[in-house]
Amino acid sequence: MRVLGVLALALALSTGAASARPSADPGISASEIVIGGTVPLSGIAASYASVGRGAEAYFKYVNARGGVNRRKITYKYVDDQYNPAQTVQAVRQLVQQDRVFAIFNSLGTEHNLSVRSFLNATKVPQLFVGSGATTFGRDYKRYPYTIGFLPSYIGEGKVYARQILKTKPNAKIAVLVQNDDYGKDLLAGFKAGLGAKRKNLVAEQSYDALSTDVSSQIARLRSSRATVLLLITTPPFAIRGLVAANRLGWRPQVYVNQVGSATNIMRIISATANPRIIEGAITLISIKDPLMPRFKNDAGMKLYRTIMRQQLPRGDVNDGFHVYSMAVAYTFVEALKKAGRSPTRASLVRAVANLNLRNNPFLLPGVVVKTSSTDHFPLDQGQLQRWSKNQWNPLGKIVSAKP
Amino acid sequence: MADVLQQVVSGIASGGVYALLALALVLIYRSTGVVNFAQGEMAMFSTFVCWELLDRGLPYWVAFFLTLAISFVGGVLIERLVIHTVSRSQALTVVTVTIGLLILLNGAAAWIWKGEQRTLENPFPSDTFDVGGVVIAAQDLGIIGVSLAIVLVLWAFFQRTRVGLALRAAALNPASSRLHGVRVSWMLALGWGLAAVLGAVAGILVAPTQGSFDQNLMLPVLIFAFAAAVLGGLDSPIGAVVGGVVLGVVLNLVGAYIDFFADLRLPAALLLILGILLLRPNGLFGRSVVKRV
């Protein structure tokens, strides 16, 4: 009996000891960590493919220098054609069949929303979501495994409202807005920022992302006699909107949101519409733009161009999405370093919510990536820019874009 | 009032482009009885070809007509190599093949031209005229002028030339035409070639109005062109043109002044297709087909 008792105790102790050791999560070994995500590589949003390719290029660069704690990062990004239904399928496959450690850098608001519950239920980290929808940073209590990256659209809208109230407190304002979650979020922030001056917003026209042109909407906005025009639009519609405004001879003070304000887009507007329509235009930027002359000799941008040349020679160096995606990949690598020598999904999520990175080489100087257990907005700073002489020029200091 | 007229003017300009693409759809439908879902993507591809030629330094009008020639050959080749091989199957098979072409051409363009925003030169002056508060752009007048000219040339071709007559005959009664020495299958290829040329003109005209374009230039335009063709009657060229312009104007007015449709212009066009097919399947100008049994 006694022997049996000892045996039982030994057994209990040994199993207890075994279960006390953290069981290894899927997707990680001593030599590799596998992460996955969805990016549109074909279909209507195929131009966002750079968001996957740039991050992959940065990981290859890190891997060539030994990886993180001798682990190579493998990033499987799958085409979802910017269709949330396909995002769901692809993410399930990544988690259940490919057994990835975490979902990273997936693009799109509805797309990330469609898998958020699933990923949190299965405790798979959903990291640095490619959307500025405020919910990804705000609702961390319900969805602790999810975190965004971009400044929240609400915060961005508030920054524009503050700037307009400061410079033209009584100007009539017109808004062209994309009719989806992204557009509504940014517009809501803008209205909140206007506060008591809400009545200054005299005209609002929306468009569907699948429509051809917005000249009808622009004609309506112009007839409101507004002198300020805010474009809450993706690049093609920023171009179409201002081409249409120019054709009608309308010259409002233009504000264009970060999503649509890359230098190459502004130069297209300048060339096809009229340089004068965007002279003095204003935007908020957090990430370095490859076409900004003042970063020509910047160390971060030199690193960027080296990585592009070595790892992604077919890619367009002037495409700002590549810089954006390297900024995200850099943040992931730093978080992984902080997650311990043998990271678990839980330790990675803790590390992600405890960042204070002052030297992200791909962000504007002075922009800090900071998170805490109550702050799940990694990037909530930016700097207003004013367009003149065919380039963006800084306007004032780094400002907060907290929602 | 000026606001309403402004919407009408802008509607006529966009309607002109719908009309050109609708005309291309009608051309193929009349000669082969097939609705070509790849029509928009063929036009988009031609637009990229034109961009490429201009990018390589050719003068505008050389690039323009060279693109039309390349598009014509491309259209003929697609008919000969792809459509012809499945033409004996059911109509559904052929339609499926054209949808396959749509996806293929879209993917190929994204791959070749990297899915970036490109800009195409505007052949017309960028002046605008102010007529009683309504702004009219020379570019829009140019588009309307070119569209009208093409419709007239096509009409003359079909009504006044032997080849045009043979084309019509081959479509109407292939067996009898063959007995009269018309090479029917080549006539079908010719129809595809002409449709490709029309699409190319539509693409080259519409791209500069949007400031920039990528491989998705024609996806939404195609839906409006379908609506225009159905509105006018799928077998009526005049109907396609009238349908295009009416659709452009109506959608602008509905979108601008009925809040419910403000950002539902595309669904409104689909609703129109459905309504017409239910109430007047032959459209405004189409003939109903009577078969003796």
Summarize the helices and strands and which ones pair or pack:
The complex is a heterodimer of chains A (403) and B (293).
Chain A: H1 2-20, E1 32-39, H2 50-64, E2 72-79, H3 84-96, E3 102-104, H4 109-121, E4 126-129, H5 135-138, E5 146-148, H6 153-167, E6 173-178, H7 181-194, E7 201-207, H8 215-222, E8 228-232, H9 235-247, E9 253-256, H10 263-272, H11 275-278, E10 282-285, H12 299-311, H13 320-338, H14 345-352, E11 356-357, E12 369-370, E13 381-388, E14 391-400
Parallel strand pairs in A: 1-2, 1-3, 3-4, 4-5, 6-7, 6-8, 8-9
Antiparallel strand pairs in A: 10-13, 11-12, 13-14
Chain B: H1 2-32, H2 39-55, H3 60-86, H4 91-112, E1 128-131, E2 134-137, H5 138-160, H6 162-172, H7 174-179, H8 184-209, H9 219-232, H10 237-257, H11 265-279
Antiparallel strand pairs in B: 1-2
Describe the structure.
The complex is a heterodimer of chains A (403) and B (293). Chain A is an alpha/beta fold and 403 residues long. Chain A folds into two domains: 32-151 and 295-380, Response regulator (Rossmann fold), CATH 3.40.50.2300; 153-285, Response regulator (Rossmann fold, 3-Layer(aba) Sandwich). Helix content of chain A is 42%, strand content 18%. Chain A contains 14 helices and 14 strands. In chain A, the strands form four sheets. Chain A has a five-stranded parallel β-sheet, sandwiched between helices. The radius of gyration of chain A is 23 Å and the shape is globular. Helices cover 73% and strands 3% of the residues of chain B. By secondary structure, chain B is an all-alpha fold. The mean pLDDT of chain B is 88. In chain B, β1 (128-131) and β2 (134-137) form a beta hairpin. Chain B has one domain: ABC transporter involved in vitamin B12 uptake, BtuC (Orthogonal Bundle). Chain B has a two-stranded antiparallel ribbon with strand order 1-2. Chain B contains eleven helices and two strands; from the N terminus they run ααααββααααααα.
